[in-house]
Amino acid sequence: MFGSYGVWSKLIGSSFGVFYQGWVRALLISLALFPILLFTKKIVSFERNDRKWLAIFLIFTSFTTAPIYYAFTHMDLSAAYLLFFVGVILTMYIVGFTLFREKITKIKLIALITACLGLYAVFSFSADTFTPLAACMAFLNGIASGGEIAFSKKLSGSYSPLYLSWLSWIAILVTNGIMSLAAGEIQHVPSFDMAWFYLVAYATTGIIGFWLVLKGIQYLENSIGSLLTPLEVVFGILFGIVIFNESLTFRVVLGGLLIIVAAILPHLHKIISSGRVPTASLR
């Protein structure tokens, strides 16, 4: 899902302001999730001890839409994804190893290095194709997304991932709405054109993708979860080939293989170490 974010951003382009598209997407997603939360009775109050984690989670999540949108629309997707994922991986590793006391194992370090090599192999990094501000925005969004995912683990075991997702979009709605007005962006009236179609599609992928991340992180250590995120790059490359007719080079193939290896390596090591071999079953 997240692999398509660059595609939607490029298709929308400069049709909407950076913060405007953020609060509109947040509004659409919040409205879509609210009836589901009411029907399933997932809206609950937070325990006193969880409120500080909620605050940290929402602070990080407030910086996860506008920066990457700016980066995607002002620099090559490949360079933007590289800086973004570097930020995600570094943040999740730092949080996992320091705050959550996750063990630094040899297999995790090997997988991390392999993932970085894969990212380096895939992306051509040229400073001539982007501005320093766009590069900083991509890296900032990576830090914000990494912190958002990592700190959600403090909450997702006790609260519905869908509820946390809704709260995150409410935070984005408020912060991006205020920034959009403060920046003097044009507040467009909704219309039936392609830009709005792309924006709605962008919002839909956000609903599905973020919920899956919060649900999955319950069963993974942050450091291992961070190694799965480069798989989004592979899908982003595939979308680029299909939609924008981008060429598939040897570096892309090699990088994609390295990223896949890095993603499955920790899980494969756990299976081998436990002596369990997964078997298929018919239902």
What does this 3D model show about the protein?
The protein has helices at 5-12, 18-40, 51-61, 66-74, 77-98, 106-122, 132-156, 161-182, 194-217, 222-228, 231-244, 250-274. It has 283 residues and is mostly helical. The chain has one domain. Helix 3 (51-61) packs across helix 8 (161-182). The longest helix is centred in the middle third of the chain and has 25 residues, at 132-156. Mean pLDDT is 81; it is low at 276-283.
Give the helices and strands as they follow along the chain.
HHHHHHHHHHHH
- Report, as a whole number of angstroms, the end-to-end distance: 28 Å
* Secondary-structure class: mainly alpha
Number of strands: 0
Percent in helix? over 70%
Mean pLDDT across all amino acids: 81
Number of helices: 12
Notable traits:
283 residues, mainly alpha, 12 helices
In short:
By secondary structure, this protein is mainly alpha-helical. 73% of the residues lie in helices and 0% in strands.
